[in-house]
Design goal:
- The structure is a single chain.
- By secondary structure, this protein is of the alpha/beta class.
- The chain has a single domain, classed as Dihydrofolate Reductase, subunit A.
- The protein has 7 helices and 12 strands.
- The longest helix has 14 residues.
């Protein structure tokens, strides 16, 4: 059964972006890039919100063919471009991008069906609405938190206020020379679904190709990114700010 892995950059005080989506606090180096590359190489699908999907669609297909990018960036871009993308969008107004499917909402049964599918794990980037819905349904199997040595004091928090405590157990911790620590946690209260009987397996209820069956939105070209660049605009193309729109 596939795992759902939420991967996020965060600060010491639990924010994933500034109040206006600022990401200028990030520390990107070769170790960070190695983690990101290994994550997508070892995964089969991306689960994204609509805005994150649009940002990615506007950058990675172009970066995969850009001769001005480094070999490492093109390799990462090609992997992201060819992976299955599952985008959560109530409106259906999403960017046309190869290998994209749509979920109207984060539905427990549909997500469990995804987890029961064949292939590698499912990585969640970006949308706080998607992450919080998965947390509420106890469907997240692992959190990968890249904790930065900075306190923003204000911004967009990964976990909502006013909700019950989210208890986690540590899987591993890896410090980077930049001061970032990659913390991998497993939710204590996750509810892994029981294996479905072999004779009762159903086909996924996800719709087919978005480009053929859903209204499309032209993806806007995004800025370039390189492992040694940490400007706000460049960072957005690699890991867009956490926004809640679907």
């Amino acid at each position: 059964m596939r795992k759902i892995v939420v991967s996020t950059w965060t600060t010491l005080d639990g924010f994933v972006a500034g109040p206006r989506d600022e990401m200028d606090w990030l520390l990107i180096d070769d170790q960070m890039y190695r983690y990101e590359r290994e994550l997508v190489e070892g995964s089969g699908s991306l689960l994204l919100g609509r805005i994150t999907h649009t940002d990615f669609a506007g950058h990675w297909p172009r970066a995969a063919q850009d001769p001005d990018e480094t070999d490492e960036v093109r390799e990462y871009a090609r992997r992201v471009d060819t992976m299955e993308k599952i985008v959560v969008s109530a409106s259906g107004n999403i960017a046309a991008w190869q290998n994209t499917r749509r979920l109207e909402r984060v539905d427990r049964d549909e997500v469990i069906e995804l987890k029961r599918g064949h292939g590698k794990d499912i990585v969640v980037y970006g949308s706080l609405a998607v992450i919080r819905a998965l947390v509420e349904l106890r469907l997240v199997d692992e959190f990968h938190m890249l904790v930065h040595p900075v306190a923003l004091r204000d911004g967009k928090a990964l976990f909502e206020n006013g909700r019950p405590p989210q208890r986690l157990e540590l899987v591993s911790a890896e410090p980077f020379t930049s001061g970032v620590v990659l913390m991998k946690y497993r939710p204590v209260d996750r509810v892994p679904p029981p294996p479905e009987p072999r004779h009762n397996r159903r086909q996924s209820s996800l719709p087919g190709s978005v480009a053929a069956r859903e209204p499309s939105q032209r993806a806007q070209p995004g800025p370039k990114w390189s492992p040694n660049t940490a400007t706000d605009s460049a960072v957005r193309s690699f890991r867009p700010a956490h926004r809640s729109g679907l």
